[in-house]
Amino acid sequence: MFAATALLIARNEELIFQDRGVVAVSRDRQDPETLVFSWRSKVEAPMARQFEEAYREWKGEGRRIIIDLHSPGGAIAEGEQVIRLIDRMKRTHEVDTRVRSRRACYSMCVPIYLQGEERYAAANARFMFHEPSAYDFYTGEKVDQPKFERDLVSRRYFDRYFVNSPMDPVWRDRLEADWKGKDLYFTGQELADQNSNIVTVLE
């Protein structure tokens, strides 16, 4: 029964994220000087291009951008392009990130979320951390890498996105010790309670 429930949850999340690769831009209802860039899909092309086009169109507006995320993660290279664009956004706007109630930020979504100056999350927002995996470019199937190669890629990923981040160092060390070969899930409430400094504002 538990396995069937987990399968249903996973399938529902796939349907929620599926084919939503468009940045929706709106003004915050309470503050018209705040623009909300919403992304509800995988971290994969055309995410960076979509954010680039949205920023180009709206960069003369407002003073603040909230990047509202709901994503199962995806490609490291695409996420890196998005992070570079966020650095450009910070030259003209305050940039915050948010994961709302019953929304998720998994895998490569987390390094993007960590780019926010303030990082908002609902108590029941879901976050997931795991070591990066390699996938075949043509088939999309997961590749079974040699251990030394997995460890090297994992180390580089961890150093690039978590060591150089606002994450609390003590919490980060626990994450590094615990995430080997696992998917680690936390709610926004748990991250706040554990003083991870991943979530800075609990909604």
Automatic annotation (TrEMBL):
This is Peptidase S14. It comes from Hyphococcus luteus.
